């Protein structure tokens, strides 16, 4: 990935390896990703897929083991420890799922917002004015002096967003920000993210398990086994819904959102076939491919008796039949090593 093409976030062949006891676990495995300036993006994936590790790398909380991560022209791997600290304080904001990680319980909402400004070296009346402006921005002007325990879960998350914006970051990272909220309150938080994205031009990445996140963002990135697996993009198409006879639809009614999932093909020509497709078609660990007019046909491989795949297939079947998942976990760790 040599040119940025106007991208604000660039991850190029990104690897992150953690050592657990004597086993090395590869959380990111050659991940490539670009996010445009001012984009609102959702990041989804199963537990252990690498999505939170990606957020930590983008936020400067973890250094990648290999590859490049460039944010607004800065290569985070080349930043000194001091420069990386300044990056975390000023250029990126964080919103976490747990309220206790976002807010200090014995401080008021205003004081929570003023704290990151103070830590970054700002002082005086500016901090108080900025904190009040941010509380107004998140529609909590009536909660200036309330401590977190006096706020609802949704209000706590809105204060947390205000805290994340205190030092005017260019990138906002949110890790499961609606994970502990009901659906109505979650919608309010998502609406706030959309408003910040639209009005401030803020680049926002939201990690979520919520399958409905695609309704709230412009693009959803799916991560599987530490790699970018697919993207779901929102497009508009003419509405096909039936109308009452004689009803003249308004111009906005002529169009509806359509979500299109695109499987990622990496620079080495690899792609990830979704698990449900593999199971439905009986794919094991070998396939056959052939060109068919303007497409490529992929089907389960036949006549595998003379290949090295039989032992692998038998082990896979035994693992799937094992209810406790212990061997599956072991195999996954060995594969990542």
Account of the protein in words:
This protein is α/β, with parallel strands linked by helices. The chain folds into 2 domains: 7-237, P-loop containing nucleotide triphosphate hydrolases (Rossmann fold), CATH 3.40.50.300; 274-337, no CATH class. 32% of the residues lie in helices and 28% in strands. It has a 7-stranded mixed β-sheet. Helix 4 (109-119) crosses helix 5 and helix 4 (109-119) packs parallel to helix 6. It is elongated. Residues 333-337 have low confidence and may be disordered.
Write the topology of this structure:
Blueprint: E1 7-20, E2 23-36, E3 40-44, H1 51-58, E4 66-71, E5 74-75, H2 81-91, E6 92-95, H3 99-102, H4 109-119, H5 125-137, H6 153-164, E7 171-175, H7 183-200, E8 203-207, E9 219-224, E10 227-238, E11 255-263, H8 275-281, E12 287-292, E13 295-300, H9 309-321, H10 326-336
Parallel strand pairs: 3-8, 3-9, 6-7, 7-8
Antiparallel strand pairs: 1-2, 1-4, 4-5, 9-10, 10-11, 12-13
Helix pairs in contact: 4-5, 4-6, 5-6, 6-7
Major sheet description: 7 strands, mixed
Average pLDDT figure: 83
**Overall body shape:** elongated
The CATH topology of the largest domain: Rossmann fold
Structural class: alpha/beta
N-to-C span: 26 Å
The CATH architecture category of the largest domain equals: 3-Layer(aba) Sandwich
Q: Main traits of this protein?
A:
alpha/beta, four-stranded antiparallel sheet, 13 strands, Rossmann fold, seven-stranded mixed sheet
